[in-house]
Amino acid sequence: MKSLTQNKQQLWLGLLLLVLGSNLMLYRTDFGAEILVSGASNVALGSLLDLVIIAPILFLAWKKKKSIKLFLLLSASGLVLSRVLIPIEYLEPFVAITWVGIAVEVGILALELLLLVTLFRYMPKIIKETKASSLPIIFSFSNAVDRFVQKHQLIHIICAEMLMFYYAVASWRKKPVLQANTVTLHKNSSYIAFQVMLIHAVVIETLGIHWFIHEKSLILSIILLILNIYTVLFLLADIQVVRLNPVLLCEDKFYLSIGLMKRMEIEWDEIEEVYTEAEMIKQKQTKDTIDFVAKDFDEVHPNVILKLKNPKEATLAFGMKKTYSKVAIKFDDLQKFNEALSKYRHE
User: Fold this and answer.
1) 276 within 8 A of 303, measured Cβ to Cβ
2) Between vectors from CA 233 to CA 229 and to CA 212, what angle results, nearest 5°?
């Protein structure tokens, strides 16, 4: 059944690429130019239908989504793409229609700029509330932003980048605070050494490849340099998030994070079942399982899996959100977590 679903997804993706590729070939190759000799306007109309209706439907089928809002957004993007792809002499009879897509995209851009203005307008209040909170900054900052600013993917991305730069640059004077209600995930692993090794690899790559490419293409070398600097900052921030944010076990819920890549807030009463046997853990690690396991040089397995009563949202890299039904975790001190679970969870 799983294989059949994957085949369907590959079919939709293949059809989507076929539609886009055939239209690209039509207007950007000599073979397409021969087809356009006669009936160019009708061909342009067919391309419009492909880009505005067919391609969005195939994209939604590929992503297994049913969203009128997303369909309209993709259709507007198709109208804008048609202005770029189709030569104006063929598109001229339908040029008024394409302005609709441009207007929609401009409107969306204006709304996103308004959201950014709102974010920075409320930033003093957000920072004040973040500092006043007893929660780790990686949780309190996001919660404060959601309180003052409308939830939007762009806002999530901007906030994720702000957190990254904070931990990479401004958090080095802070020290980990380990209390009775905290438990670490990385102490019994080589997680930090693993991340430091990656940083060394990126720095060596930057020094070696940058100067080699610099002689060939200045622009490409600068782009690669910026990407490598960003990667180093991200890895440094990731180390700091892991060091400074052990799992926080509160009375109503616990706050779980592993670097910048994953974090969740889980209420004790949302837990349906707990699996700690090694064989059962292997069986329960399925596609809808998110793992909070510190990377190591050797293969590492979780020591507990929590099955949730209902799928729960997790925050991933760059503020992306996704829901999971099971949570796999490797605690350094599983006994401490079990004691909190027994104390706060109500069957």
Assistant:
1) yes
2) 20
To the nearest 10 degrees (0 to 180), the angle between helices 123-132 and 95-121 is 50
Query: What confidence score (pLDDT) does residue 40 get?
Result: 65
Alpha-carbon 194 to chain mean position: 22
Instruction: Determine phi and psi for 291, rounding to 5 degrees.
Output: -110, 140
For residue 233 the two structure tokens come to 């900052």
Alpha carbon distances (Å) from 253 to 268, 271, 321: 5, 10, 19
pTM of the model: 0.73
Which residues have C-beta within 8 Å of that of residue 259, sequence separation ≥ 6? 238, 239, 241, 242
Enter the tokens of residue 323.
Answer: 């829901």
Question: What single-letter amino acid sits at 181?
Answer: N
Nearest to 78 by CA among 110, 34, 46: 46
Are 160 and 146 in contact by the 8 Å Cβ rule? The answer is no
Dihedral over Cα of 218, 219, 220, 223: its sign: positive
Rounded to whole angstroms, how far apart are CA atoms 191 and 193?
6
Instruction: Look at residue 233 and tell me whether its pLDDT is greater than 60.
Output: yes
Provide the residue ranges of all domains of the chain, joining segments of one domain with +: 2-114, 190-244, 247-344
Q: Where are the alpha helices (DSSP H) in 185-291?
A: 191-216, 218-244, 278-284
**pLDDT cut 90: percent of the chain above it:** 28
The yes-or-no verdict on residue 285 having pLDDT over 80 is: no
Bridge partners for 265 per DSSP:
255
Give 26-61 pLDDT, tens digit per residue: 777 766 666 666 556 677 778 888 888 888 888 888
- Identify each DSSP E strand in the chain by its residue range: 182-183, 247-249, 253-258, 262-267, 271-275, 289-292, 304-316, 321-329
Q: Check residue 32 and give its pLDDT.
A: 67
d(CA 206, CA 204): 5
Give buried/exposed letters for 136-153 (b at 16+ CB in 10 A, else e). Answer: bbbbbbbebbeeebeebe
Residue 49, CA distances (Å) to 96, 101, 316 in order: 15, 13, 36
